[in-house]
Every structure is written in structure tokens, then in C-alpha cells.
Amino acid sequence: MLNKLIILLIILLSLLSKNRPMTYGGLFIFLLSFLNKEYLNRLDKGIFLTLGMTSLIIWMLIPLIQTSATINSFHLKSYLNLEGLVSFISGLMIVIIASKGSRFINDNVSSLLGITLGSIIGVAFLGGIPVGMLSGAGMAYLIVKLIKILIGDS
């Protein structure tokens, strides 16, 4: 019952902050919460991650078809600049960090509420966009790991 109340709180906060993806996700999970628990235990969460990531990748790649870019405009030399190299390294690092975040959330369910509320507040008050929960989980993983190293509790 407490889980459903938390989900309803997330939906309410998402509605108030106009965070539509979080609202829709919360409503979907709220509806799923009424299903048989045995069915839910067999449900592959990876399907939803794949659908979400696919949607995000489609959104990111749309500019490629909106511009009048030709084969001649894609020169390797034009990507070998500061922005291109830093972007490449950032992309490489964030997928590794996000994979750690995915495991962190699965192993520490209590962290999920903090990441979710942080995401809602970031969207509502700080102009964020709700695409970074796995990255946020990865950052949480790194910060927790760093703190544990600093205090000697590895």
C-alpha cells in the first residue's frame, strides 16, 4: 500500500511540475501495480529501458534528417575539434556511468525515490529535461563509491 502512495505522490508532483514523461510513467506503473505480483516478478524491465532509449535516440537523430547535409559535408576533419573530441569522450563516459547507475538502482531500491524526486525538482524548478535518470543514478553510484572510499568503507 505504501508503494502505491509513493507512486501517487510522484504522479502528483509530476503533474504539478508539468513533467509529462514522469506523469505518464507514474500512471503506467500505478496501473501495473494492480496486476498479479507473480506476473510482475516475471516482467522483463529491460523491455521498457529499450523502448525508452530507442525513443530518446530517435529524438536525438532527427536533426540528421532535418538538415540538408550531404555526404560531402561529413568530413572526419570537421569532427576532430575540441567540441567533437570532448563530445565523443563524454558520450563514451556517460554510457559507462549510466550502466553503473542501472545496477545501482536495481541493488538499492531506496535510491530510486531520491533520484526520481531530484529529477522532478530539476525539471520543475531548474529548467531541466527529464532524460537523465540513469545518468543521475550513475552519478549517485560514483558519489557513493567516492564517499565510501574516502571514509574507508569500500
Structural write-up:
There is one protein chain. By secondary structure, the protein is mostly helical. The chain folds into 2 domains: 1-69, no CATH class; 78-154, no CATH class. The chain is built from 8 helices and no strands. The protein has helices spanning 2-16, 20-32, 37-42, 46-66, 76-79, 82-107, 109-126, 133-151. α6 packs across α7. It is globular.
Q: How would the blueprint of this fold be written?
A:
Layout: H1 2-16, H2 20-32, H3 37-42, H4 46-66, H5 76-79, H6 82-107, H7 109-126, H8 133-151
Protein name: DUF441 domain-containing protein
Organism: Tissierella simiarum
Pfam family, one: DUF441
Task: Please give a quick description of this structure.
Pfam families: DUF441 (PF04284). The chain is mainly α.
Number of structural domains: 2
Order of helices and strands: HHHHHHHH
Overall shape: globular
Q: State the helical fraction.
A: over 70%
Distance between the termini: 35 Å
Strand content: under 5%
Q: Which whole number gives the mean pLDDT?
A: 83
Structural class: mainly alpha
User: Over all CA atoms, what is the radius of gyration?
Assistant: 19 Å
Largest sheet: none
Counting DSSP H or I runs of 4 or more residues, the number of helices is 8
Number of extended strands: 0
pLDDT below 50 for ≥5 consecutive residues: which ranges?
none
